[in-house]
Batch of 3 targets.
Target 1
Amino acid sequence: MKLFSKSILSLQSAALAVCLVASASATAQETSKIGFVNTDRIFKEATLAKTASAKIDQEFSPRNKEIEDLAARLKAVSDKLDKDGPVLSEPERIKRQRDLTDLDKEFQRKQREFREDLNQRRNEELAAVLDRSNKVIRQIAESEKYDIIFQEGVYVSPRIDITDKVIKALNSGK
């Protein structure tokens, strides 16, 4: 959610910056060097992002397996209750339904905790990738004398898209 808020703020800031750059450029009769970086592509294509994703998958794989096993157990218990229900005594059927409800609550709780923990770790890793890519973007901007580089846009001309340069720099470890 924080990343989306940053994106919205970035868009608003970007629009203001474009107006300011265009105004200053028209007044000074000089052209500004503008660039664009597609953050989504960085998250999908940069080795750093792929490594972070693999790390998260490995870290959460055991818990995911545990939840899948619990789901299978829940289904088996439910199927058994459905099958045996008509021949069970009333107290036994009520006990099994209660056990099934308790198991379902445990499953729901573990699944919710898993999603929350996974989202938190994913956000931490993506923030680290974003921080590193922002440093690379600043280095490119300074070395190639860009006046402004945007990270979001409704339409972007391919001639100002420097995403490939950023990904290449991230992958080379610069």
Target 2
Amino acid sequence: MANKRITSDKLLKFCFIIALIAVVLTFIFIYYEKKKIVVLEFGTFAGSIYDVPDWQSYKALDKAIDKFEKLHPNIKIKYKSGILKSDYSERLSQSIIKGNEPDVFCVLPGDFNTFTSIGILEKLDNFIKKDSSFDINKIYENAVQAGQSQGYQYALPKELDPELMFVNKTLLEKEGIEVPSGNWNWQDFYNICKKITKDTDGDGRLDQFGVVGFQWQHAVYTNGQQLFDLNGNSADFNKEGIIEAISFITSLNKLNQNYTVTLQDFDAGKVAFKPFLFSSYRAYKIYPYKVIRYGKFEWECIKLPRGPKGNNASQLNSFLIGMSSRSKHKKEAWEFLKFLTYNKDIQLDVFRYSYGMPVIKDIVGSIEAENELLKYSSGEKFFMDKKSLEEIVEQSLPTPRFHKYEEAMDIADKEIYQLINSGKDAEGTIAKLNNKINNLLKQ
């Protein structure tokens, strides 16, 4: 009986020692795991995403990396500098083929649909759902939609670039026309263009024009219309609002009497209006670019004119960042992706160092944002209040994201361009086009 008690005591001691060793080893493992340095590669390019002059390309990124690494001492971020935007897609595609793409990378508009279709972008839905420190509802909804495809979130927006309307104030003043209010509409727009368009030197040829660059897509979006359903499964070109938009562009073009208005006409000060990106406004409104590019006349930007069914806003361009589905450090990659798109100070840096707009709603409407805009506008008064700027973003429509979008739009653009210039029946032509694109989407 005593021997059994001794054997039992030894077994208990042995089990206790084993358990103690296991606990110690677990703590050692956790300790070294926390101390282990994880190196993430970030894919980016030199210069501005917006194709405007940019003299501090990496400043905001270097600041973000420095701050992130201080908050996460076990994560180091590296990136390859000097890659031009024009070469970025090719370089990224080559790294994907070789299987060594960055853990987190910038996703250019022309790459998003391809990357989602081949499965290289990680679905972010579970990360978003499980992360209590991240509230996607604080980001502009239409900007969030820009990173979605087939109901999944594949990328998050870091910056926004809404469209505005450039106004040649000098030309309007010469013609005795006031700069339109923020709530102007297509009819106001047409009336001004009609009054502006004329032969000023008496040689029998038009030499002054209302607008350049206002395409059928602008008319569609300012009339509140979507060309496809959310998932890109079907085309919706034959809606009344889209027919209405194309008819409006046809009417505008007729004012020019078969003359093709060019950007050279605009730069020479002979055109009153031109759609203009917010990023271009910020870049060319300050010295020295203001003098270099648009120094021949006084100008400003206002909201786009709204159609009968739409708002004073058009398409919203979003600068997206995604995560590789093959990353070996997805937890850390998510933390860095979230930091770039959601951290308050990094989002304010969009106003400090970039030409776009932050994606966080509260930041765009903040006093800090207003101060940054004034600071980096060489002391000039900003052209519209925060509320108007927020309205433009909220009312803009996101670019559709699905695999055959570019191909479908190429077909639509060619046929609608021919329709506008031919004067043919819009309804019949658009109905045929809608069937053609639906057949493409079903293939």
Target 3
Amino acid sequence: MAFIIETERIALRKFTLTDAPAVLEFNSNEDVVRYTGEKAIQSLEEAKEIIVGTWFSDYQTYGYGRYAAVYKPENKVIGFAGLKYESEIGMTDIGYRFLPKYWGKGLATEISKAILDYGFNKLKLKRIIGIAMPENKASANVLEKIGLQYYKTDGFLNDGGAYLWYEGFAPGKKT
């Protein structure tokens, strides 16, 4: 399958149903989902439901979504990264989720820079946001490193939480 975005160490491609074991591996890990507002999944069936019900649906509806993040040195799906149109708020969010073994290596920053470039230059998006729980300092740092600017602390999807909101604009498009 063709890669959509590629950096030195990470390549992104659309998920397939054969990725269900990898999705189960990273989405069942309590450390991985701690700051996501989601519960850890428990089965291959749940992994397949996410692939079909969320990712395939986003690809078809919006033309982009979260992609399988392949760590090139191992040719292994280690999580996801990409953009997601959040219809409830009418904005596109950048996100990433990797297995803990791959944290602290600069991978989120590396691929997120390429995702922003793809979003602004290929998809012609004018604005991309990033949302992080205040306790998730690592993700907030990544959002800042890739050039997004903090602009508010607010709830998200009415879950009662307070999140750090960041935004970035395509060159010359800030409104």
